[in-house]
């Protein structure tokens, strides 16, 4: 079981990360990850379609390498600057 302090920390981290999901950088990374992961999805966004077209020209191993890199960057972006408030 989690202690109250652990629950508070987890809640604060979740709220903080949710507040960062709509950052332009986060949206761009999500778009790149999605584009590298798909072949057939045709979104409304022209930029998105261009990413998908470009991604098709690269071998799967290279796309997986980029996906891992972008997921790592995305995770760092969501956590960046988080400092939990400790109740005394």
Biggest sheet record: none
What portion of the residues fall into strands of 2 or more residues? under 5%
Quantity of strands, as a count:
0
Q: Could you state the oligomeric state of the chains shown?
A: single chain
Structural class: mainly alpha
Q: Overall 3D geometry? A: elongated
Q: Order of SSEs, N→C?
A: HHHH
Kindly provide the radius of gyration, computed on alpha-carbon positions and rounded to a whole number of angstroms. 17 Å
What does this structure look like?
With 88 residues, the chain is mostly helical. Helix content is 69%, strand content 0%. It is elongated and about 50 Å long. It starts with a helix and ends in a 9-residue tail after the last helix.
Brief descriptors of the model:
single chain; about 90 residues; mainly alpha; 4 helices; about 70% helix; about 0% strand; elongated
Topology of this protein?
Blueprint: H1 4-20, H2 24-37, H3 46-55, H4 60-79
Helix pairs in contact: 2-3, 2-4
Can you give me a brief rundown of this structure?
69% of the residues lie in helices and 0% in strands.
């Amino acid at each position: 079981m989690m202690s109250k302090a652990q629950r508070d920390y987890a809640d604060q981290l979740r709220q903080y990360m949710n507040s960062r999901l709509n950052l332009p950088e986060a949206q761009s990374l999500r778009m790149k990850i999605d584009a590298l992961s798909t072949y057939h999805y045709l979104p409304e966004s022209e930029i998105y379609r261009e990413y998908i077209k470009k991604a098709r020209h690269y071998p799967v191993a290279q796309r997986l390498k980029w996906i891992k890199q972008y997921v790592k960057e995305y995770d760092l972006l969501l956590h960046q600057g988080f400092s939990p408030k400790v109740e005394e």
